[in-house]
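During the reporting period the student researcher (J.K.) took over the structure-prediction task from the postdoctoral fellow and processed the backlog of single-chain submissions. One of the processed entries is reproduced below for the supervisory committee.
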Amino acid sequence: MTEVVFVLTADSHIGSGHLVRCSRLAKSLEQCLAPCRITFLLPSLEEVPPSLTREIHAVTAGSMDQIPGILERHPADILILDCYALDAEFERRCLPGCRLLAVIDDLHNRPHACHVLVDGNPNASAAQYRDLVPPTARMLLGGRYVLIAEDFRNCRKTSVPASFSTGLVCFGGADPVRATGAALRGIAASPVLRSKHYTVISGALNPEHDQIRRQIEDSHLDCTLLRSTNQMARMMQEHDFAIGACGGMGLERLCVGIPSVHVKIADNQIGFTQLIAGALAGVSVDLADLPVPGVLEKAVLFLEQNGEQIRQNSQTMVDGRGMASVAAALRDELTRRTGAEQQEG
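J.K. obtained the following structure tokens:
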């Protein structure tokens, strides 16, 4: 039985993106490592809704400091860390409790002591991690390793309409920067955008769901408001365009090929916005500009005029096979290290 342990955080402050992508990777690992047992170690489960944890075995660790001790008592074959607050110091403490340590990162701003590093950003490069990872570490970099569910590949668009009538608005599971409300203000300020129908997903961890509902009612927008959905890929396929954050969901939208306004909500997303602009794969807008009259209207009109080209360029950047590719690479690396250990023994 192969033991796989994920360590990450998910709450209303940082959102649920890490938990979502790790739960998807867990399913791919179950397929290629069978039989295996997968455990999620989180500092706290208080703010994680049951809808995100009912399909995984999640354990409350109490704090990150307790996790190295837990691993020493219950060793893992593969340990996967997905938390921007963790670095080489923490990873070295975890090494005695695992055979293979993998880190998911896209910030390249801190040192690691891992065996494998995964960065699925299409513009990721080894140069960004120079002197940050051990020279023997295996690097899984670029669009081939984007950690998104295969559902998004299965729902790739085959065409884009010449004129848009439906839009999808979603800023992830928590929307800590309140971008949903800002986008709705931008839509309400434009007669062109007001004429369209929108599906708005507030997010399962978003504390402002009721305020968003009242905002939609007060502005008389033609919107369907959802708390969350397990059909995101299909919804991207069925809508004409989307408005959402850069980052993980931005990569999902690229895979589907839905023309999108990608909103920069954090400084570490500058590279993503530059990538989008250079590849003609959508339009990037800063969070502060979302409610400014005319900004969203101009962006959506550009998407409408260039929709088919944007679809093709987006799908070229992200092929949607990343989960299987990462799972297979981790399996092969564990096999290699196991063989080396046996020879040394």
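The committee noted the following: The chain is about 40% helix and 20% strand.
J.K. will present the remaining backlog at the next meeting.
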